[in-house]
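W.,

You were right to be curious about this one. When I first looked at the sequence I had no strong expectations either way, so I just let the prediction run and decided to look at it fresh. Below is the sequence, 92 residues in total, followed by the output.
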Amino acid sequence: MGSGDSGPVRVGGRRRIGPHGTAARVSVAAVILAPVAAGRFDPKDVVVGLVVFPTILLGWQGWRARRTPAESAIRRAERAGRERWAGVNLRE
């Protein structure tokens, strides 16, 4: 963390997401729960949501991790930080 970075905003050990974050959470929950409340519950949707979709995302993340090792990502981030600190673009 830099000197200007105060880290995550927390109040009483809990994150403060504000009214927009709360509204977004409520909206997403309503969209997800609306079919269940309307009686259109399909077990296939549960399998897709809890098994298939997470499996695809984890596979994609694993592929990205093998394609771009963490060491090179860390080095790129360090170089970008040095460039900002020096106020120059080292790639030119």
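Here's what jumped out at me. The chain has a mean pLDDT of 77. And, maybe more interesting for your project: The chain has one domain: 11-86.

Coffee later to discuss?

I.
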